[in-house]
Write a structure and sequence with these properties.
heterodimer; A: 327 residues; mainly alpha; two-stranded antiparallel ribbon; 14 helices; disordered C terminus; B: 309 residues; 12 helices; 70% helix; disordered N terminus
Chain lengths: 327, 309
């Protein structure tokens, strides 16, 4: 068990290293002087600065040494400077990390909870109108561009019905104190999280429906029914646990896509997260920030994958036992 | 490299066909392709998907000829609603350009880029998946590590970086999408090749002396096709969404009109001019939906037992 967790963590570290190498390659494959790429357009006009960057990153040294220098810097949390803001990339990113985590976390929790519920409900009555409706909804949800869904929801909820704020994550004047703060952010969070969650709600409901249908046909469920357990207990206690395993797998696999969706949603709603930062950095040609966001988001995906793998062992003890017997 | 001649050819060709596509079952299984087609056509949703796609393709190909209006021209005052003007039936955008002309002309870019990206995804994905699945062993582990790496990259962000660092042309965009979207196909191909590589007919082809390359191409690949055809259809949908997302962020080819770009440009005015973002969005939605419906229909037709799941 411990050994397999250690191996899994080692694999995650390997992936992080690979992302660093990719970032390094991107800097060097881009047409033009790597020093210019690192400081972005806003810093490229300053010859002293370029010299300094060349010295810092060892750009006159052999390629391998440059790679080593770069990895060394990134590994110690130094993602470079933003010459637009005159601030370190790490501090810029850490200020924007929390809103993105909040958005992605809320959307994901909503999608998993609601999706599984819809999936279970429809699997119990596969021919009901609700079930067909859910299938249609899954198709529709997958086919809508997420940024457009966001805009449509704003037109509906914020403009036509005036129920929710249009964009941003704070009103200009929000009340004093912790509670008012939380409520204000919460109110602003509803539409972005709903937008992002809807796609995944659709997918998870479809997935959990399929796996629930399969599990409900299995022998152990028949046994549970035969020994006289109530239907609710059979479904929610016995069947559900196995039926969510594919959902957990897909959450891990799709986390990158979820983050990509979050970037678009943040742009639509002016949500001050990493996506918005990446978008603005492209406009400002602030390359070091852009590459920093790529680095940090990739690490987030790697960590999310690691966590889902560990989650397996909690949901499905067989995975844990199998590995223990191997040791 | 025409290998050991006659026997190998016949054996491989024969063997490739006999196991069928797992589609027919029952009595009429002699022609699995026809059975699949029959099942597909009977599926109403799938037929609707085909009709929708035909409509989109017709609009994109014939539309610009039938409706001769340059989407970049300013035809009237800005932000006029749909139905108010005869020269711009779907209204005008924030510069006074015809929204209908934009919708008609925007599909060309989206579909072309998506097709280019999907082709790239298939070539990389099938190539890597086939080698990994067929040879197994260290080649498999190495290639799967490689695939895993591309799976953890947040696809859109990586594509944004690529397009931002290099010139935004249709080729760069297709390349950026292709580079990030292939791992799924590689995994499916690998799984199919792993499943098939030790089946009797593949062993028979090997026994009569067919080369690996020939077995991969003529024996295993045709039998691995059904799930790949389904995924290729869905990849088209994903690629269109991707292209739209990049264009929305302003990272599209600046010299073309595309649905995503229209939405991005009108983003500042959508509260006053819903039509300028709604119609291009509907166009994207229907195009992606048509591919999803077709993909689902194909899936059901190839695996009748899984229908409705």
């Amino acid at each position: 068990m411990l050994r397999s967790i250690a191996a899994r963590i080692a694999q995650a570290l390997g992936l992080i290293l690979a992302v660093m190498c990719l970032n390094f390659l991107l800097i060097h494959l881009t047409p033009g002087d790597p020093a210019t790429v690192i400081v972005g357009e806003s810093g490229a006009g300053d010859p002293e600065l370029l010299e300094e960057i060349r010295a810092q990153y060892g750009l006159d040294r052999p390629f391998v040494v440059q790679l080593g220098t770069y990895i060394g810097r990134v590994a110690t949390g130094d993602l470079g400077e933003s010459y637009f803001f005159n601030q370190s990339v790490t501090s810029l990113i850490s200020a924007r990390l929390w809103p993105t985590v909040l958005l992605v976390g809320t959307a994901l929790s909503f999608a998993v909870a609601a999706g599984t519920m819809v999936g279970v409900a429809t699997a119990r009555r596969p021919e009901s109108p609700l079930s067909h409706g859910a299938t249609v909804l899954a198709l529709v949800g997958f086919s809508m561009p997420v940024f457009w869904t966001g805009i449509m929801l704003v037109i509906l909820f914020a403009s036509t019905w005036k129920l929710l704020p249009v964009q941003g994550w704070h009103d200009v004047s929000y009340g004093e104190g912790m509670l008012a703060n939380v409520l204000d952010v919460g109110e602003h969070l509803v539409l972005p999280a709903l937008t992002l969650g809807l796609i995944y709600l659709a997918q998870y409901s479809r997935l959990s429906r399929a796996s629930m249908l399969e599990v409900l046909e299995s022998d152990y469920v028949r046994t549970a029914r035969a020994k006289g357990l109530g239907e609710r207990r059979v479904v929610y206690k016995h069947a559900l646990r196995n039926a969510v395993i594919p959902v957990v797998t897909v959450i891990g696999l799709q986390f990158g896509a979820l983050l990509s969706g979050a970037l678009l949603v943040e742009t639509v709603f002016n949500w001050p997260g990493l996506g918005r930062l990446a978008f603005d950095s492209i406009l400002r040609r602030d390359t070091s920030v852009l590459l920093g966001v790529l680095m940090v988001s990739s690490v987030m995906v790697i960590v999310a994958n690691l966590l889902t793998d560990l989650l397996y062992t909690i949901i499905d003890p067989r995975i844990r036992l199998r590995e223990r017997s191997n040791v | 490299m025409s290998d050991s001649a006659g026997l190998g050819d016949v054996a491989a060709a024969d063997m490739g066909v006999t196991p069928g596509l797992g589609a027919g079952g029952g009595a009429g299984a002699a022609r699995p392709g026809r059975e699949t087609f029959r099942l597909f056509v009977r599926n109403k949703a799938a037929v609707v998907g085909v009709l929708m796609l035909a409509g989109v393709v017709f609009m994109t190909v014939a539309g610009p000829r039938l409706y001769d209006q340059d989407p970049k021209d300013i035809v009237a005052r800005p932000l006029i609603g749909p139905g108010e003007l005869t020269e711009a039936r779907l209204g005008t955008d924030y510069l006074g350009r015809d929204v209908l002309a934009g919708v008609i002309n925007g599909g060309g870019t989206s579909l072309t880029v998506a097709a280019m990206a999907a082709a790239m995804v298939l070539v990389i994905g099938i190539g890597i998946g086939a080698v990994a699945g067929y040879y197994g062993g260290w080649a498999d582990s190495a290639l799967m590590r490689f695939t895993e790496f591309f799976q953890v990259l947040p696809a859109l962000l990586f594509a944004m970086v690529v397009v931002a660092l290099f010139e935004p042309s249709m080729w760069t965009i297709a390349f950026a999408i292709g580079v990030v979207a292939w791992p799924g196909i590689a995994r499916i191909t690998r799984a199919e090749f792993l499943r098939l590589r030790n089946l009797e007919f593949v062993r028979a082809a090997r026994a009569v002396g067919a080369t690996d390359w020939r077995i991969i191409r003529k024996v295993v690949f045709p039998n691995a096709l059904p799930p790949l055809i389904v995924s290729a259809t869905l990849i088209m949908g994903t690629a269109i969404l991707f292209e739209a997302g990049l264009a929305f962020l302003g990272l599209g080819d600046p010299n073309t009109t595309s649905w995503g770009l229209m939405i991005g440009l009108n983003r500042g005015n959508f509260l006053t001019a819903w039509w300028s973002v709604t119609f291009p969005g509907l166009a994207i939605f229907f195009t992606v939906l048509s591919f999803s419906l077709i993909g689902d229909g194909l899936q059901d037709a190839y695996n009748p037992k899984l229908r409705g799941r």
